[in-house]
Write a structure and sequence with these properties.
The structure is a single chain. The chain has helices at 3-31, 51-56, 76-79, 198-232, 236-253, 255-261, 269-291, 296-318, 325-355, 361-380, 392-469, 473-490, 499-514, 533-553, 601-612; strands at 46-48, 59-61, 66-70, 87-89, 108-117, 123-129, 135-140, 143-148, 163-169, 172-181, 194-196, 518-524, 560-568, 571-578, 586-587, 590-591, 616-622, 625-633. By secondary structure, the chain is of the alpha+beta class. Strands 1, 3, 4, 5, 7, 8 and 10 form a seven-stranded mixed β-sheet that branches. Strands 12-13-14-18-17 form a five-stranded mixed β-sheet, with helices on one face. Strands 2-11-6-9 form a four-stranded antiparallel β-sheet, with helices on one face. β7 and β8 (143-148) form a beta hairpin. The chain starts with a helix and ends in a 15-residue tail after the last strand. The relative contact order is 0.07. InterPro entries: HATPase_C_sf, NatK-like_C. GO terms for molecular function: identical protein binding; kinase activity.
Length: 648
């Protein structure tokens, strides 16, 4: 292919991936985002909902218009005494109680209130409360509906969970949330609650948990399978890292399920969840460096930097209760810079690997492009919280895990296929050795019989002289004929001048004759060949073994096997034909095994041997049987097998 054409096609492919991934993130932003769901919002602390509004929008996310009472844990009784001492707040605008003021502590207490004006008829409603940090009491009108942990500062105990509350109400209804946080990097009501019909909210929650459960289950199964492969195969380094990557991804993607089922304390669970996300990035970088064969110093620097960020994230999570707002902002800026550097580094190293013709790096490059697009759109569209799925960066990280997994599974599959073929070749070598031993035994037996014949020959001469002197010519003729038959029976017939091939063909000839298979040969092979005899015997042994097995399965017609071969004009040519009455199973251009599910190992070994020596093979079937035609060049070096298919 022309170089310019190749570059153009690769550039168009990258442009297509950028366009497709950007379209995906834009679609998620518009259709899977709590902040873009069109529904009336509260104004000045009050939300008016008519019957028509309720019918048109059975689910709404309570984002705007909350009354915010800083540094106060209110009850329904004390709420009425606050007067105008509050501010209006949009949920998601701030992530802690500091409210952007570096002089204030991000920890403490606060209360949120919202008044709903519902239709006058009594109706059943549901509120889904997201994770609220880190202990709270939730009131509807004057009743305590839910408590997580203990928000009172004297008896403070953190605990949080995604919860749903179903209640009956009509007319004016007040929601009050009293929250305390002394435990985590987020404080108070960070994500907007959902308010709507019980059936609709339960369906939405079920779909969200179901999607998360599917992703978590897949990553967990990949982790288990990777662990098994790491123990059983030689691809240990990469597979062990991928096992850890899948394990970290399982932890990172399971939060929606776990937080929806279990009430959890902040430590150590939220710190583990925080660190698992950065561990995913670290492990992706390590695998990315190995697959792209990045220079050693780059591997050390990138791995050390990602590892340092993981340690800082762990310390950040464990010391969350002691953090100030400037420290939180510093860590946020550090994370932004790290993610930006990661995206640039992955793109650059993958592009360089593609330029060096590392084919597997192409898949990583496409995955890196999607990850970079996720990072860009996360910055361009910050006002995003998913209803069903995950955040942009989560989808980007999951995509990197999938791209890395595809590359590794390809390596493992190819390595496993080569190991099966190697095992088949080993089996053929052992069989060849057994054939040589049997051939040697037969030769020794004939030598012993010949020695005995020489010993007895003087007795035969005396008998012949006696019969001749007495004129008993008929008895003399019969005696000579008997000696000739004995001598012919002691001859070990040679099917070809090459000793190794002769032993191989003799073995299958005897096996065929023992099973009433007509075996014919026409082998014009010299005594010495400028070709690795072990590989040649393995190749022909597989073809002859398949031929015998096909004849053994044959139920009708005559059973025949024919092998011919010759060496001429620098080529070694063979033909192996056999009869069969079954159906030749194929998948694509590969032949399926008749003994087991999947592709035949014998044929796979034959094809690999032919490819290794730059030979040509033609396999086909017709009404006369199955035919294999092989041509191998003499005096040529074998083609090396790529070490990348074996292990790093």
């Amino acid at each position: 292919m022309d170089k310019k054409s190749f570059i153009l096609r690769r550039s168009l492919m990258l442009l297509f991936i950028i366009t497709l991934s950007s379209a995906l993130f834009l679609a998620l932003y518009h259709f899977d985002n709590k902040y873009t769901k069109t529904a009336p919002q509260a104004i000045n602390g009050a939300l008016y909902v008519s019957k028509a509004d309720w019918a048109n929008t059975p689910i709404r996310y309570l984002q705007d218009g909350w009354r915010y009472y800083a540094d106060r844990l209110l009850t329904p009784e004390t709420l009425t005494q606050q007067g105008d001492n509050y501010q209006y707040l949009s949920i998601g605008a701030q992530s802690n109680f500091a409210m952007g003021d570096s002089r204030r502590s991000p920890h403490g207490s606060a209360s949120y209130a919202l008044t709903l004006y519902l239709p006058e008829e009594v109706h059943t409603y549901t509120i889904e409360l997201p994770e609220i940090y880190s202990a709270y009491k939730f009131y509807i009108d004057d009743k305590l509906k839910l408590q997580m942990g203990e928000p009172d500062s004297l008896e403070y105990q953190n605990q949080t969970q995604c919860r749903m509350i179903t209640f009956e109400a009509s007319g004016k209804t007040t929601l009050l949330l009293a929250v305390s946080d002394h435990s985590w990097i987020y404080s108070g009501l960070v994500y907007p609650p959902a308010f709507g019909e019980p059936l609709n909210l339960n369906t939405t929650r079920g779909l969200r948990i179901g999607i998360c459960l599917i992703v978590t289950t897949v990553t967990l199964m990949l982790a288990i399978f990777s662990f098994y492969l790491a123990i059983r195969t030689r691809h240990r380094n990469n597979i062990w890292i991928f096992f850890l990557l899948c394990l970290a991804s399982t932890v990172f993607t399971s939060y929606s399920v776990v937080h929806g089922i279990l009430p959890l304390s902040i430590q150590p669970w939220y710190s583990i969840e925080l660190v698992s996300g950065y561990l995913v990035t670290l492990l992706v970088i390590l695998l990315h460096n190995r697959i792209c064969d990045t220079k050693k110093y780059a591997q050390i620097i990138s791995g050390a930097l990602a590892g340092l960020v993981c340690i800082l994230a762990l310390l950040y999570g464990l010391s969350a209760s002691q953090l100030t707002l400037p420290l939180m902002l510093a860590f946020s800026n550090l994370v932004f810079g790290f993610k930006l550097l990661t995206a640039v580094y992955l793109l650059f190293t993958a592009a360089m690997a593609v330029r060096r013709n590392i084919e597997k790096a192409t898949i990583l490059l496409y995955g890196d492009v999607i990850y970079a697009c996720a990072f860009v759109w996360d910055r361009l569209l910050p006002n995003y919280e998913p209803v069903f799925g995950g955040w942009f960066q989560e989808w980007g990280s999951l995509n990197l895990v999938i791209a890395t997994g595809v590359v590794l599974w390809y390596d493992v599959a190819m390595g496993y296929g080569h190991s099966l073929i190697y095992a088949e070749e080993q089996r053929q070598m052992k069989r060849q050795l057994a054939m040589q031993v049997e051939h040697l035994r037969q030769m020794n037996q004939k030598v012993d019989e010949t020695a005995k014949l020489r010993h007895d020959f003087r007795h035969h001469l005396r008998t012949l002289m006696t019969l001749a002197s007495e004129g008993r010519y008929e008895e003399l003729e019969n005696y000579i004929r008997g000696i000739t038959e004995i001598n012919e029976g002691m001859r070990l017939g040679r099917l070809t001048d090459n000793i190794e091939l002769d032993a191989l063909v003799q073995y299958y000839s005897n096996l065929a004759q023992a099973n009433s298979i007509h075996f014919r040969t026409r082998l014009l092979i010299p005594e010495t060949l400028n070709f690795p005899i072990v590989d040649l015997c393995g190749l022909l042994g597989n073809l002859l073994e398949n031929a015998v097995e096909a004849c053994l399965r044959q139920k009708t017609g005559s059973k025949t096997i024919f092998i011919a071969g010759r060496a001429q004009e620098g080529q070694l040519e063979f033909v192996v034909d056999n009869s069969f009455d079954g159906e030749l199973k194929t998948r694509g251009e590969k032949y399926l095994s008749s003994k087991r599910n999947g592709f035949g190992l014998g044929i796979s070994s034959v094809l690999e041997s032919v490819e290794r020596y730059n030979g040509v093979i033609n396999l086909y079937a017709d009404d006369k049987g199955f035919h294999a035609e092989v041509s191998l060049p003499l005096g040529i070096e074998q083609r090396g097998i790529s070490q990348s298919l074996v292990t790093r």
